[in-house]
Amino acid sequence: MSTRTALAACIVVALLLAPGDPGAQTAAQRVEHGRRLVEANCADCAGATRRGLEEGIAELERALAEGHADDIAAYRLIVAALNVLRLVHAAPDSPEQEAIYARQRATYARLLARVPDDAEAHRAYALSLDASRPEEQIRHLRRAMELADHERAAQDRRALVRILAAAGRTTEHAALAAEAACRPSRFAGEVVHGQAFERSLDEHLVFRLAPTGHPANPPGWTIEVRHRGMAGPEELSWAVTPPYRFWNPRYLDTSYGWSARDAVAAHRREFGFVTTAAEYRTAADAVRKLLWPADLPAPELEAARRALDSVRRASGTLTIIDSRVTPGADGRIDWLRFELVVCLPAPP
Predict the structure, then answer these.
(1) SS3 74
(2) Are 346 and 183 in contact (CB under 8 A)?
(3) Which 3-state string (H, E, C) describes 251-305?
(4) pLDDT at position 180, please?
């Protein structure tokens, strides 16, 4: 082999073995590189350095600036890394720590704008906040509870009880503490189109699937909880199961543009309910003020929000196990088999 040929071969090998130009990396490669750096420089990782963590954050931020498709995963990595940077590498109560904290909150805001119905994102944000921001903590933990499954919502509820106590929100704390100390029960059932299902929850409360087969109502059922001793038409779940306008998880029917197949595909239905006439009146009055505020002053509306939050409530999760539907434009739900888990608060 000639000297010139050997030299050319060496140059080719050197080029193949040399690290790539960072500027030539794709956004996906940047995210992968950033992920490895962040994971290698965690709070408890051996050999972790601040420089490595900051390089990982920078790589992820560059990937986002370049329009990386999976921006949600990148945002999650960044907020986790900023949390380590703030709590491990910055001096407590320093301007630097506050600046990192501001970056972290801003990144969470961007993440939540992308995934507003992600329970884990709301939960992680709430738990990353310090005690000086109780209102934000409470708001995001409540949202996580609404979105989470039954078991995870119970854990969020216990965390929220602690935050409410620390914030001095005694009325809400007492209501939620009673809710957290619930008495769970579970049963299964079946229901056929046009028929009602009814089951006692305790000596006072009755769970119902009320048929909505009248021409004025779409075919299916509405989840109800009623009190045996309560006079009048009061139903105990609507006032503590948002949303209050349009579709609601209590509707197992073809209302609001849902087909029968859509309705049974939404197989997990979570709802709240109150257990006494007094709690019902408090919740219903508060909801009506918030839905139709008219000329109510701001302090009265805030009092209504607080009153609604302070109402002691129970929770239920209905899971559709099997179903039969009749095809058609909207179709019809002919039969359901389901499981119900109910968590009743301890008696006041």
Answers:
(1) helix
(2) yes
(3) EEECCCCCCHHHHHHCCEEEEEECCCHHHHHHHHHHHHHHHCCCCCCHHHHHHHH
(4) 66
Q: Which amino acid appears at position 310 of this protein? A: S
Query: Residue 157: which of 113, 126, 128, 130 has the closest Cα?
Result: 126
- For the chain, domains (ranges, CATH) are 16-180 (1.25.40.10), 183-345 (no CATH)
Provide the 8-state DSSP code for 67: T
DSSP run (H or E) holding 109: helix 95-114
What is the C-alpha to C-alpha distance for residues 308 and 279, in angstroms, rounded to an integer?
9
Position 146 scores a pLDDT of 81
Instruction: Specify which of 60-64, 131-135, 158-162, 200-204 reaches the highest per-range mean pLDDT.
Output: 60-64
Question: Which is more confident, 227 or 9?
Answer: 227
Q: Which residues contact 249 (CB under 8 A, 6 or more apart)?
A: 223, 241, 266, 269, 270, 271
